[in-house]
Amino acid sequence: MIDGDISDIFHVSTASINNLGVMNMKYNPEIPRAHYDQYGNNEWERLEKDRLGELLYHVHLDILKRYISNSDVVIELGAGAGRFTKDIVTMCKSLVTSDLSPIQIEINKRKMEELGLIHKVKNFMILDISNLEDIEDHTYDIAVCIGGSINYLFDKEENAINEMLRILKSGGKLILGSMSLIGALMYYLNGVLYEKGMLGIDATEWLFTTGIQDEEHYPVENKHYAHMMTSKELDALFEGKQVKILEKSSAGLFMHSQEETLCSAKQDQEFWELLIKKEVEFTKLPGTLDCGMNIIYVIEKL
Ligand SMILES: C[S@@+](CC[C@H](N)C(=O)[O-])C[C@H]1O[C@@H](n2cnc3c(N)ncnc32)[C@H](O)[C@@H]1O
Question: Which InterPro entries does the UniProt record give (predicted)?
């Protein structure tokens, strides 16, 4: 249905979308904090409770393994319950892990304790990526911010990018993950159609055009307000910065086969292994970039 970027389809530029939408939306840290405080332990289950979660896990893990080495000083931002903390901590020289939600950081600490990894984590911090003032410039070799923290930032998106780049050494790398607007629209189209019945076609067009769920234009009941992004918007966030984009990947492509099919696929071990291998491979093809649940960029600070 959608070929290319949504902003092309609606004949508006990303800049004007930003002017109309994201830039007008004010970041409210209470929204993600309250959501993830309440989400609690579910965040630990998120990447193993269904096959989509498994696909996402494998694609992210592959990228982390290829860019993090045992000489790296790493910070994890928006770490949640620690699904990737437990892996990153075994790959690097030292790790500080952090999140906006105090509850998520408590769970992360507890999980690392249970896994016997707590002594390897240098610090657990409560940090908001829009303002990392407690961290000095040029501190880290790698900053990992995956799973969508960037999608709650609205008018502070660029602040967060600047902050994450600021705390990196030159030559350091930012591994950034965002929720993908087009992938999510395709996967959840049934839900979008249902919500159209409650919110109307103008709200639906707003969502397709901007990727924004907000109080004014797309007031979802759970108040989980966020800005899902296209790769074009991610590109715009790095435009004019002293960076080189090393890699772009989608994640969760085979989610479109739906859970039931994926569960059957998993019954056949050699088929499942092949599927994961191909998920990792196909997510690197430019034509798939916006089609998964997430978009991941690896950025080098020059
Ligand atoms: C979907 S979870 C992802 C957790 C983990 N990184 C992963 O990929 O499994 C998103 C996390 O981002 C955190 N978060 C949201 N906004 C944030 C912000 N402004 N600064 C730091 N963390 C934030 C949430 O509290 C939540 O734990």
Answer: Methyltransf_25, SAM-dependent_MTases_sf
Q: Report whether residue 76 contacts ligand 1, using a CB cutoff of 6 Å.
A: no
- pTM higher than 0.90, yes or no? yes
* Cβ atoms of residues 22 and 93 within 8 Å: no
8 Å CB contact between 108 and 79: yes
Cβ of 62 below 6 Å from ligand 1: no
pLDDT tens for residues 67-99? 999 999 999 999 999 999 999 999 999 999 999
Work out how many domains the chain is built from and give that number: 1
Greatest Cα pair distance, the chain, in angstroms, is 54
Asked, for residue 1, whether it belongs to a domain, the answer is no
Segment 38-60, tens digit of pLDDT: 998 888 988 788 999 999 999 99
* Whether residue 157 has its Cβ less than 6 Å from ligand 1: no
Q: Is the pLDDT confidence value at 1 over 90?
A: no
**Rounded to an integer, what distance in angstroms lies between the CA atom of residue 12 and that of residue 205?**
13
Q: Is 135 in the pocket of ligand 1 (CB under 6 A)?
A: no
Instruction: Among 58, 83, 100, name the best residue to mutate to test ligand 1's pocket (greatest count of ligand atoms within 8 A of Cβ).
Output: 100
Contact status, residue 250 vs residue 288, Cβ threshold 8 Å:
yes
In a domain, 105, yes or no: yes
Domain span at residue 51?
6-301
Residue 232 lies in a domain: yes
Rounded to whole angstroms, the Cα distance separating 25 from 274 reads 43
State the Cα–Cα distance between residues 74 and 173, nearest whole angstrom: 10
Residue 253 falls within a domain, yes or no? Answer: yes
- Segment 259-264 long-range contacts (CB within 8 Å, at least 24 positions apart): 259/50, 259/51, 259/52, 262/50, 262/51, 262/52, 262/55, 263/51
